[in-house]
Amino acid sequence: MKAYHAVVSLFVLFMSFGAASNSDYNMRKGVTDISQNVYQLHMTIFLICCVIGVIVFAVMFWALIHHRKSKGAIAAQFHESTKVEILWTAIPFIILVVMAIPATKTLIAMEDASKADLTIKVTGSQWKWHYEYMSHDVDFYSVLSTPREQMNDQAEKGEHYLLEVDRALVIPTGKKVRFLMTSDDVIHSWWVPDFAVKKDANPGFINEAWTKVNEVGIYRGQCAELCGKDHGFMPIVVDARSPEEFELWLTEAKKEKQQQAEASAALLDKTLTKEELMAVGEQVYMGYCAACHQPTGLGLPGVFPAMKGSALVQGDLKPHIDILLNGRPGTAMQAFGKQLSIKQIAGVITYKRNSWGNNTGEVIQPSQIQAEVDANKEKEQ
Amino acid sequence: MSTLVDSQEQNPEHHHTPKGFKRWLYTTNHKDIGSLYLIFSLTMFIVGGAMAMVIRAELFQPGLQLVDPHFFNQMTTVHGLIMVFGAVMPAFTGLANWMIPMMIGAPDMALPRMNNWSFWILPFAFSILLMSLFMEGGGPAFGWTFYAPLSTTYSNDNTALFVFAVHIMGISSIMGAINVIVTIVNLRAPGMTWMKLPLFVWTWLITAFLLIAVMPVLAGAVTMVLTDKYFGTSFFDAAGGGDPVMFQHIFWFFGHPEVYIMILPAFGIISTIVPTFSRKKLFGYASMVYATSSIALLSFVVWAHHMFTTGMPLAGELFFMYATMLISVPTGVKVFNWVATMWRGSITFEIPMLFSIAFIVLFTLGGFSGLMLAITPADFQYHDTYFVVAHFHYVLVTGAVFSIMAGAYYWLPKWTGHMFDITLAKWHFWLSLVSVNILFFPMHFVGLAGMPRRIPDYALQFADFNAIISIGGFAFGLSQLLFVAVVYKCARGGESVPNKVWDGAEGLEWEVSSPAPYHTFSTPPEVK
Predict the structure, then answer these.
(1) Superfamily the domain A118-152+161-262 falls into
(2) What values do phi and psi take at A50, rounded to 5?
(3) Tell me, what DSSP letter sits at residue B84?
(4) Residue A153's CB: how many other CB atoms inside 10 A?
(5) Any stretches that span the bilayer, and where are they (chain B) (predicted)?
(6) Chain A, 274-313: which have a CB under 8 Å from a chain B CB?
(7) For A230-257, what is each residue's pLDDT tens digit?
(8) In a domain, B56, yes or no
(9) ω into residue B101 within 30 of 0, thus cis?
(10) I need a labelling partner for A60 at 20 to 30 A (CA). Which of B145, B189, B404, B517 fits?
(11) pTM for the model
(12) How close, in Å, is residue B279 to chain A by CA atoms?
């Protein structure tokens, strides 16, 4: 009887694990109907496994305790019994069928992305996410915002260490939001546990997923598919707001985009000081370039080229601007023309040409970048 | 079960054997080659284990302390490759070499020269792989699954070395598999009919067919990676009309049968040991054979359950979910059979039995998490998290590796003629059992709580569990050094053992003297 009590109390303990919502040791219930269905499925199959396990191991340990040679047990001679064998094939099969029915229902619901209220294109690239609100002319990149000092143990780690970004994806609650996933380089996977959405972003292909969030809140996730060196450093943050607040945010975001365009245009007539450009450049370099080329500018030999002493960085300006704007196809070097403003590109080029012993003394103005951008456009036409 | 009619052993004096290194380099003897495989596998187990220690040391606490993320990725990649292709598979091939001829009453493997060749190319394969770690740019850093285009366009220039290493490993496995099949089909002693074959032989026969079926697929995959990267083809590059998802289909068409390649011989070992120490016949011999065959057949139609998040039509997801769930039926049959064998037996707990019991419990745990992973909607949450890492380490470490340990302890006295140091072996077992669970059990929790796999640094809510996991990891790693000590001591000397080392053991291998002479069954025994 003692063993029986132990088993029951262990079982209750497992149950209480399950009862705690959003715990640190169980799947999150999440904030969508789907995620709660998934959680229920998970707990059901888990408990079925526990029951089977308890029964099978109880029989086994009974034998191990009572049928020991040291207790004088003499081996029985029975073997093979068609009846028993049919039974222990059929019973698991029935359990599986019982399990498959709710799983199928949930799966069919999950895969139905039709009749969406809002569509957002999610593009992964090494190592950031890009969100584009289809038919709203709003798009932006979302990059890890945890400072490098925290990773290197030089500063205390914040509450949302590695799970924070510079700009969160904002979505409305109570609306069906459809995500179209793709990638600019390798395969990434967009995962927010609270939505039970995990879908790979494949280069050259588009995957579909959807969610309908019930509660306002901030939800955090991470890239789930190994995508290179900084795979562990491309989190996802979703800010779910009420539909009214979402509309406000959307209008604001559109306005902001316009202002940025105007600010860039205004820069064309200005001459910025070297100090200002270097400051902008350092910030951009640490945020966008240092992951590969390293904060020291030394790169990773054989993987990512060094900036320090580089012929390209110290040579002609044109190819240097060109590689920043358009990237280098077939390598990890991305096209930053779409990601950074002309001021940021001017800054980072100035920074690279005047750091780590690179000493060209050149100061590159935003207007020079714009000239290259225009030249590229003409070429394309 | 069988009687040895004629046990003439060849007189070793008539035999001209080279001494020293040449003996091992030129050997075509199945026992020598078996030993070489086993020693090689143990070496690789230590090397791959050392890499796991690096991983666990970096993950001991949040933040980047010891290695940079690029090197971390190389460690996870090479750890996986070494453990799969260098430790588990050669260990099973070593056991097959030693035991299959002795179990079926054959004088040697059917193709002894090829046997020599299939072993001796392995050290070269792994030297190439390990050397790439020391080259500029480092070794492979794209995971042992080497998904394109991370392994093609975005990998470093040393990827060719990885490709060639995998090619050589594949050739070695295929040759080993051919040898096993030809031996079992042709060299069985008179009277050794199919349904009298020991289960270890049966499971290996089926494994060998799996190997021949899927290793060429892996060779095709790595070759396409090679040409995509170096020769401008676009098999997996969407920009050139290729398809990165096709890579995953090809890889897992190899990869899923591959995981059964690593577990079916384990089933054979456990099915041999449990009856011995229960002093009772295996409950359902025939159903074990059928269950093994059905697992092998099903393994070809479940591959895409590794890819549910990749994006698949609903019908595809449903098919692969149902097929995967189905696998738990024959697997359950096996577990029930082992339990029924123990039931009303006369059980003793020698070291091989301890490892087998641990195998049954812990492998079943891995089976349960496997069943959970089969449920597609739930898999969306589990996929690529530590829950998966926990799952496959339960089936591969407490499954495959524990069965290898059980087999090694079971047959070590037969190989060496000495009983191993039982006290030390008990320490090895209990320390391994406790530490392996401290190592892998909490991984279920961090995985469910949302920690992705293959990351060098993690959010703060995972910190406590990761520290525990790392401590378990170091303890498990150090415990394995005890195994090395036991094997070394046993090879050097110890108490002599009789021919039939374990009183409940059955089979031809226990009728030859201990240690097993260099040549056994030069005249075939007759099995009645």
Answers:
(1) Cupredoxins -  blue copper proteins (2.60.40.420)
(2) -60, -45
(3) I
(4) 13
(5) 36-57, 77-98, 119-142, 162-187, 199-226, 246-270, 282-306, 318-339, 351-375, 387-412, 424-445, 465-488
(6) 300-303
(7) 999 999 999 999 999 999 999 999 999 8
(8) yes
(9) no
(10) B404
(11) 0.92
(12) 6
